Write the structure tokens for this entry.
Amino acid sequence: MGIIMWLIVGGVVGWLASLIMRTDGQQGIFLNVVVGVVGAAIGGLILGRGEINNSPLTVTTFLVSLAGAVILLAVVNLVRRGSVR
């Protein structure tokens, strides 16, 4: 059940992050899930003191995941275009 929750929440987080960073038209559902899951891992490592899967799904953990996904998209935009949108 845990992996299914990671995929669902990752998809929602990736979609919201792509809306915030205005890259939604460039990404499909698969990339939204990838961005969300990788962003959650990044956010958990940075803001969660290294523990990425020990917390239940709360508003705080959702926002940490969203912050990590936005950071990931900003870095990708910076590398790809040379500027953050």
